[in-house]
Amino acid sequence: MGVIGIGVGTATMGRICRDKDGNITEQSTARWDADPAGGSVAIWPMDPEKMEPSGPAEVYGNWDAAAYLRRVVDLIQPNRQINIPDLEAMIQAAAKDGVDICTYCADCNCWDCIVSKWKEDPDNE
Fold this sequence. Notes:
Layout: E1 3-12, E2 15-18, E3 24-28, E4 31-34, E5 40-47, E6 52-53, E7 58-61, H1 65-76, H2 87-96, H3 114-120
Antiparallel strand pairs: 1-4, 1-5, 2-3, 5-6, 5-7
């Protein structure tokens, strides 16, 4: 792939409503709209000559940087090693060694923290 698009926007899930007989009464399609205040990130292939989308978009939550950045790297296929460390493996190894990385966190928002989730299973099972 020569060119990819990536943007912030709002994802709207499609839906189909049916009546009691199974007839469709209302229908909307899934879509993604560019919006700087949106809560999602979309990645799509682009035609480099026309600079237009050439395929469907893949949509991620804007909080899930590890997933959408991993996908970007997969799509650009660098021909040498990248410099993105495996933070999940590092935190799991620290937890196995008895190091609690959370003692350095001032946020204390553990219920919404990926580090807390990674620490739950240091053997990645």
